[in-house]
Amino acid sequence: MRYLTLFKVFFQTSIQTDMEYRADFFARIVASLLGMVTTLGGLSVVFQYTNSIRGWSLAHVVVLLAVYYLLNGLIEMFIAPNMRQIMEQVRQGTLDFVLLKPVSSQFLATFRQVNIWRGVNVLLGIGLLIYSSRKLAMHIGGAQAAAFAVTLAAGLMIVYSFWLFLVTLTFWVTRIDNLEQVMWQAFEAGRYPIDIYPAWLRGGLTYVIPVAFIITVPAEALAGRGGPLQVPTAIVVGIVALALASAFWRFGLKHYTGASA
Question: Is residue 157 part of a domain?
Answer without folding.
Answer: yes
